[in-house]
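TL;DR need structure tokens for one chain.
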Amino acid sequence: MHGKVNDSTADMDDIVRVMKALSDPGRVTVLKLLGERELCACEIIRALGLAQPTISRHMRVLADAGLVRVRKVGAWVHYRVAETPDSPVARTMLGHMCGWLENDPAVSALRAGLQKAGAQGCGGRLDKARRLGDGDGEAGRGDQAGLAGQTGRIA
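>> reply
TL;DR here they are.
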């Protein structure tokens, strides 16, 4: 995943989109949490203590930059780090993000809180929803899937 950006395939819009996504501490924190495992929107909301619309906006920006993948499982929206982003800039930055902030106290505390809460934070339904996931579980980029911007339980 590490590597240099191929200047011939990275354009100005792509660079700006990825850098904008990484310019917010909340979005960087979410990426670090997603580096551990896929998370349901409700887990992200609870971990960061932010309002649903704020998390929704953050996740839309991250998905539009190609940094996260979005998938719907039943009535739940799940996010995970994009394993192979289309964007060479996103690919390079995610490669670097793996090693950054590993010893940050705030990130460590949030990770510990997520581990402690486990799937019970979603009323125990999260594990069942994950088991019911579709084949590869990937809806693609959030803007392509039409799921970015929707978080938590969908009516």
